[in-house]
Amino acid sequence: MSQLSYLSGSQSACESAAWSLEEANGGDGLLGMLPAPKWLSHLLGLAVLEPGVSSILLLALLALGTWILVKGLAWVQRYYVNCQRLRCFPQPPLKNWFFGHLGLAPDTEEGICYLQELSRLFSDVHIWWMGPFTPTIRLNHPQVISPLLKASAIIAPKDKLFYGFLKPWLGDGLLLSKGDKWSRHRRMLTPAFHFDVLKPHVKIFNQSADIMHSAISLGLWGRDHDHHHPGASSRILQAKWRRLCAEGSNYLDMFEHISLMTLDSLQKCIFSHNSNCQEKPSAYISAIMELSSLVVKRYNQPLLYWDALYYLTSQGRHFSRACRLVHDFSNAVIQDQRCILAQQGSEAFLRDKAKSKTIDFIDVLLLAKDEDGKALSDKDIQAEADTFMFGGHDTTASGISWVLYNLAQHQEHQDHCRQEIQELLRGRQPEEIEWDDLSQMPFLTMCIKGSLRLHPPVAMISRCCTKDIQLPDGRIIPKGNICLVSIFGTHYNPAVWPNPEVFDPYRFDISKSQKISPLAFIPFSAGPRNCIGQNFAMSEMKVVLALTLLRFRVLPDKDPVRRKPEIILRAESGLCLKVEPLLGPSSPEAHLSEAPQE
Ligand code: HEM
């Protein structure tokens, strides 16, 4: 009785007694069949409703409550079992119980140093808590990453947490798709990266590098990191590197110029479109740059992880606008090419392309057929083209910029590379890198690999385990967990690479490379979902680096460079290097002496 009074709050003792009596008499209908129904319906404010309605509502509420309780208990049990199963893995000290390890490795130089330290202390695998309920498993050693990277795309798909923000931009392209769609597309797209298709692109790489060396535009893209050039963004400056040097402003942000150059060549290789983006602004190229930087911004604002909120903000609206612009561009090119293909038929279309000696990626995708003779839809082609633009520009630009940085720090290796290229091109006019030259630059290749190890453009990739995955030592990664394959951690693991922080191209000397595990060096990832564009990227890097070293000496900036891991590895306030033109037939000076001075 006292319990009833307490529960009914302001109800009088008489009323409570009446309920008890009524209940004792069997209650009224359905409501009466429930335990203590009256006080509960009063408590929930259902007593004012018709008895039948309130009974149904009460039943629904009870069912909902039971469902939540069962789900909650099941979740607690799963969480408990998962924690127990994860106890075989060590974990670094937590920041606190709520945040876990969040915030311990910020996107700064200090954060990177902390990760380096973790790789030293926990040499293969450790737990990393992202808040109180989300454990992730970070893997730093070839032996433990092997089962994960070799697992099929169904067992270890990409996880939504890390890749979800790219979806509205890249759709179901190779990077984000999964299951059967991914395997079908991967098979259909592999020929697009065959050597025969890549060969003619070498000419495009040469041209794009020539444009960068001879005419560069400063600050056109609103990403003015050129701290030696305050105000550069306010003017459009058609400047040659040599002229910049003569003006005493030969400190250039490599990232800024090289990403523009990689975007230029990708646009030509994918769409056969020349936007002259290195010389004048291009709305399409600006949109791609904006999308990349908006995705990074969103990662750093957990409140905006929620789509409904994000698209209400000005950032979200800019993101939608830039996506529309990028999609419209790809679509227009696809429609144009589809029309030509329909008019000419595939044989004449191919003959035409063979005459012009280049077949772009859109052509390959339009002609691609699966085992059943089915072609890709326009939407699929658009997603794949957008994915190539995203996957290929910043990564390659980061790769090239860090090689130049490492060679600026090590003049002896820079001289060695330059000598190799000069010998290769001796007596050749014009000095252009050709396809066959790419295999004749062993030392430059070693330097590129040395730099990709020390400064991997993609520092980490993540996977979600849909099944238990057993590690070679018998420990098991329980299904349902997110795994972070740390490319950076593996490359800095002293158990794998002695003195990991030293730039030493001789580690990649072919005569020694048998000793390196194939999974110790994974800038392009490994296994079935490795980078489909790695040969394209390596070719472009070699061409651009060879021409740059032939024409310029690069020297370190006065200020130390601070690394910044975003989607790709950048430098905090741009990667500034001092650039000095060299005399020689292909140097900009030679061209300038022929050209009338402005
Ligand atoms: C130095 C340059 C590059 C680096 C370091 C790099 C690195 C990577 C890495 C680590 C992955 C695996 C991502 C993951 O599993 O989540 C990947 C995948 C991919 N990359 Fe690259 N990449 C480079 C250049 C390129 C280029 C030039 C293209 C295209 C033109 C490209 C297209 C792709 C695509 C489509 C995928 C997804 C493959 C799949 O899941 O089947 N990448 N890349």
From TrEMBL:
Record keywords, A-Z: Endoplasmic reticulum, Heme, Iron, Membrane, Metal-binding, Monooxygenase, Oxidoreductase
Main location group: endoplasmic reticulum
GO MF assignments: heme binding; iron ion binding; monooxygenase activity; oxidoreductase activity, acting on paired donors, with incorporation or reduction of molecular oxygen
Cofactor(s) it depends on: heme
Alphabetical GO biological process terms: small molecule metabolic process
Pfam families the UniProt entry points to: p450 (PF00067)
Entry's localization field: Endoplasmic reticulum membrane
Keyword Calcium: no
GO cellular component: endoplasmic reticulum membrane
Family: Belongs to the cytochrome P450 family.
Protein name: Docosahexaenoic acid omega-hydroxylase CYP4F3-like isoform X1
Organism of origin: Phascolarctos cinereus (Koala)
Lineage of source species: Eukaryota, Metazoa, Chordata, Craniata, Vertebrata
Gene label: LOC110196228
